[in-house]
Amino acid sequence: MKQEDLLYAKTHEWVAVAKEGGTQIATVGISAFAVEALTDLVFIELPAVGKQVEAEQPFCEVESVKAVSDIYAPVDGEVVAVNSALPDTLETLSSDPYGAGWIAKIKVTNDANLAKLLDHAAYQKQCEE
Length: 129
Fold this sequence. Notes:
Layout: E1 7-8, E2 13-20, E3 23-30, H1 32-38, E4 41-45, E5 52-53, E6 58-64, E7 68-72, E8 77-82, H2 92-95, E9 104-108, H3 112-115, H4 120-128
Antiparallel strand pairs: 1-2, 2-3, 3-9, 4-6, 5-8, 6-7, 8-9
């Protein structure tokens, strides 16, 4: 996925939205900026498929040698898939954060959450500040 085509939460999660049979599915990951700030990742706790999530609330966590950090849901919805390979290939978050490093797919239940997300230019500006 091209970074320029994604939406971003202020908490550094990225979102790619696709329509699947009339339903919006948000693929979620964490940005390269966030991965770089966390440094040496050692563990990720993925959300359970079927979990109901709320925008701006933690829905999983990642652990680095520095600290444990929450990953926030950028939208309201239901987790419909997780990247089950990720815990065994954690380096993918660094090497391909916008592709194979995706974390979860969420069936969006509130489109209004999407309007609160930043486009690439606004996210880049936030990272520079």
